Amino acid sequence: MKFGESAQEEEKQNIKTLGVSKLVDINHMTKINIEKDRIKFENLYKSFFAEIKNITEFNISKNQVSISRLGALKIDPAEVELKLDGNFKVIFWDGYSMSDMYETKDYLEAQKIFKKYAKKLAKNIRSFQ
Q1: CA–CA distance, 58 with 52 (Å, rounded to integer)
Q2: Which residues contact residue 19 at a Cβ distance below 8 angstroms, ignoring those fewer than 6 apart?
Q3: Which CA distances in Å does 10 have to 4, 7, 14, 20, 114?
Q4: How far apart are CA 93 and CA 81, in angstroms?
Q5: Are 91 and 101 in contact (CB under 8 A)?
Q6: How far apart, in Å, are the Cα atoms of 49 and each of 52, 57, 73, 107?
Q7: 1 three-class SS
Q8: What are phi and psi of 62, to 5 degrees?
Q9: What angle, 0 to 180 degrees and rounded to 10, lies between the N-to-C axes of helices 38-49 and 107-127?
Q10: What stretches of 1-106 show up as alpha helix (H) in DSSP?
Q11: For the chain, which end, N or C, has fewer CB atoms within 10 Å of the first or last residue's CB respectively?
């Protein structure tokens, strides 16, 4: 071994390790399927909307979950929605005047925001029932 070769080998090993650690941090959103968490979302719906199930609707698909208020007079019903559209988007509409949209790359964070807005929607529906 010549002088400096061991330092070069060590540097190459550090670069390889750094490359692997960067790959671990990547969030593979293509593998996330909202419908796989169906039970989690159904339980959330049952817990917050148990008393008002007859006037609300729960829908889930591969890339979207939504809870909305049913009603013949409502053209634009109150709704909370989580959908995968590049990033995760949580959209909340109270049916009257308040609208909010939250966008993130983190699925767990999107679930927390969805839960927060679902709870708020249930409270609003009970108040104005």
Answers
A1: 12
A2: none
A3: 10, 5, 6, 16, 47
A4: 9
A5: yes
A6: 5, 10, 20, 23
A7: coil
A8: -60, -40
A9: 20
A10: 5-24, 38-49
A11: N
65 forms beta bridges with 60, 82
The CA distance from 37 to 88, in Å, is 15
Host H or E run for residue 77: none
**pLDDT tens track for 108-121:** 999 999 999 999 99
Q: What is the pTM of this model?
A: 0.74
At 16-75, the pLDDT tens digits run 555 544 444 444 455 678 889 999 999 999 999 998 888 999 999 999 999 999 875 667
Cβ-Cβ contacts under 8 Å for 91 (sequence gap 6 or more): 79, 80, 81, 83, 99, 100, 101, 102
CA 6 from chain centre, in angstroms, equals: 48
Here the tokens at position 74 are 């409502």
